[in-house]
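User: Before I run my own analysis I want an independent prediction to cross-check against. Here's the chain; please return only the structure tokens and, at the end, one sentence I can use as a sanity check.
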Amino acid sequence: MSLTKKNKKNFGSFIRELRLKLGIGQRELADKIGIAPSYLNDIEKNKRTAPKINVINKLSKLLNVEKNYLHDLAGISKKGVAPDIGEFIESNPRIISLIRSIKENNLNEIQLDQIEKSINKNNTKALVIAAGLGSRLKKHTENLPKCMLDFGGKTLLQRQLDAYKKNSIKDIAVIKGYKKEKINYKGIKYFENTDFKNNNILNSIFYAEDFINGNIIISYSDILFDSTVVKRTLQSNHDISVVVDIDWRGYYVGRKDHPISEAENVIFNSNNEVEKIGKINTGNEEVHGEFIGMIKLSNRGCEIFKEHFHRLKKLYWNKPFQRAAIFQKAYLTDFIQELVDIGIKVHCVIIESGWKEIDTVEDYRKALLGFNKKFTKN
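Assistant: Structure tokens:
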């Protein structure tokens, strides 16, 4: 959402609009964020400028709205910069010199975009979605989340962490849910999906919303992947990129418990931009590859991702959404398809093998049998 569009709203009116849509009373909301009802009333009537950062952050969580968007609206309310940015500049005066250099050199939008991408590229982080039940693995996940299954003396999650660390990605977080106490590695951050029995991958991701900023790779927890897959993904400079295996059909030969009809396939154009993604009818359409369960976002991509998630959540909660019966049960591919449908470009990072999905008992047994062999063609 551009700043021009943001200017069409003001902070107080926007807060009131959200509160009423969610059916929250003014006194109730004031109590939850720790301010006087009269103060909240003045804010909503635009008699006061936006509140302090800690109150804005609480409003963001309670009203299910993207935090950066609220901060930007607050800056407009105060006729200045967003409060979180103002506070950062005050505590880091060296930033003023950098901003002045940008001003004096009259950098254009393309140059500023290149600077932002360069900064973020060197500080990529990773988020692993590991909250699911893994019920298709039956006895193997009775007491373990599937990311804790053993592969040659290391768990599936450890092997993912190794692949990230080989690419100098050290800031890593995991979303836990089912058997959360079993995942206890040091040096990584944890978020908890408290409703993992009733939601799916898309909603699970947003339990770690505060972590989704800058350059970030988000991956499913049930995929074994080589470090070269991460390396290839890091090379993408696009705002939203999905990893697509174009050498995918052979993996489904003899795969009975997870047939080809359940593949999350991708059709892309000559610019490697997604046109269709999800469980496409492979008999009726020629698909180009399979989405492996890994996505990369730039800082701008994160903002797009979060803004549209909250917009769609308000529209489709408890209602059908793309291929999902209700929004809560949506897959990540449902969300990506929605972005594509409204004109947002989603780039494909093309790979050829180098990964395996561990979704069923059959997948696990096959992976174990071939584990000592190299599972990549590279």
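Sanity check: Residues 1-7, 374-378 have pLDDT under 50 and may be disordered.
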